[in-house]
Specification:
Layout: H1 14-25, H2 54-76, H3 87-107, H4 115-128, H5 144-169
Helix pairs in contact: 2-3
Amino acid sequence: MAPRTQTGSGRLSRGLLLLWALLGTGLCHVGAEVEGFGQDARTSPPVAELNWTAQLVEETYTNITQKCWEFFVDLMRNVTASELCEWKVISRPYSLLQACLEGWADSLRYGYPNALAEQYIFQSHHRYFHNCTLEHQVYFDPPEDVLLAMIIAPICLIPFLVTLVIWRSKDGKAQP
């Protein structure tokens, strides 16, 4: 057996703890037969096969996203009202919420972004960040007709300018 190298910080990830909690509560039903494995055997233990229906996956993801939300709310309790609009302060809890929602959706092959994850993201904005205003002006794309004119005008000018340069260069007189 090859020696095991330690990766990471040595702490169990929150996702692993959440999975353990779900397995402990019986939300995840894993059916697998365990056979005897000796140390001499060059095979690894069988991987648990998941027989999940779409309804079970959705129910599991719903329960997990609720835990992600509760964890986010718990982290946001440490943020004062004056710090709610400071990205340096809220980026960690907000990023952890997104990572939790996206990570579990990927793990369950549920698809991301999805309506449930968007609901929690919108809820976080409505609950915590609705009074945040931008300190600098936000630039939006111009209307489509203005944008089209800005693109077509130079394109139409190019043949005219090329023709003008060629016409002026055919004059046999030397320029002073």
